Amino acid sequence: MRKINIRAVKDGMVLAEPLKNANGSLLLDKGTPLTSFFATRLGQRGVTTVCVEGEPEPGDEASSVVQAAETQTIQLEELFSEKIINNSMRIIYDALIKIRNQNG
Length: 104
Known about the structure:
alpha+beta; two-stranded antiparallel ribbon; two-stranded antiparallel sheet
């Protein structure tokens, strides 16, 4: 098993562990073959790394140091789901989305 950056996912790689979101809900089960479509969607949901089957490849150790330094981003959409109950919350949510988009 090896942990890789979501941007390094190649079609046909297989998840070595279940992938869950910040709330613990299952996104993809262990054994799921990955595709570039899944990788793009997972990246949009804040997933930065995945564990895939196989032996570590050259460069994996160096990238794992960078990955360890990354913090997992909780998607604002998930954090605010069902909590935008008034205009004040909408203003806060919109401001956070704008800041996130400006900072990439």
